[in-house]
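Worked example 2:
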Amino acid sequence: MSQPAERQRRRTTQSATIRDVAARAGVSPMTVSRVINRESTVKDETRALVEQAIADLNYAPNPAARSLAGSAPFRIGLLYDNPSTGYLSEFLVGALDESSRTGAQIVIEKCAEPELAGATLARLLKTGVDGLILPPPLCESPQVLAEVKAAGAAAVAVAPGMASPDMATIRIDNEAAAFELTQHLIGLGHKRFGFIKGHPNQTVSQQRLDGFMGALKAAGIPMEDIRVEQGYFTYRSGLDAAERLLAAEPRPTAIFAANDDMAAAAEGLAHRLGLDVPGDVSIVGFDDTSIADNIWPALTTVHQPIAAMARAAVDLVLEEIRRKRDGGGEPRQLMHPHTLIVRDSSGPLAE
């Protein structure tokens, strides 16, 4: 092979990601990961497509990173249960991207029943995983955390509400982010507000409400002009809560939903009722998942760097594995920055 061709091959190898392979093969990044990890659940024709895409792109995980644990790569268990498909999709893509870069293997396990979380985690640990990544809501599940502590496992909690003395964490300042987003609405002249709260099993739900209420209090908005409805981070719960808010008299001129799925539901209901967004009611969300930029009008929201946090979680759990083995130091607590994203779903109060 000529030197220019060899340099081109190396550039392609270094630049290709698991998402590039997935796009070329027409499958999900998770399927690519399963093929790479030689899992038996992949159909033969799908495996052939992925292997051809890998060959075409000269894709390979970083071999130097694979040697971190010796001859075998680290195996990381990722236990998940999240009602938001947008959040989960971004999280898994970020984790799979970083696992391919580091050479770590990701073992993904769903846990849909909270009461079975401990048993699911115990089963995952028995497969020989070296560390664990726990996205929300499992990052705050008492059953899961008790099992992790009892096993002495290396683990990272992603997006919990608080730092932890026992486990490495990666999070954002939810209260500050909600405060900023509410200030944006106040700055547009809004004085009657609705809020759709997240699931009570997550600390961030209360933190986002606290940030919202703190901004309104600082602006002197009276309590009688504020309505709070319970949601559960699902589209359906957002729809139910929005029905109650939009039926109120007087109707809120601005609705803050604690995640994008619930905000999208509120937008959909507003359209169905013949209300203009944002002319009649401004609606904002939280997280900046894919749905935020794919509905009309696009959602004003808080960008939580979900994929970046997932990538950081892979690196941090590798660090935790080494820390546990060396027997020293404290688990790290990382705070990621958030960003206010202003789009067309929020606008000035109509005269």
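The two ends are 71 Å apart (CA to CA). The first strand starts at residue 75 and ends at 80.
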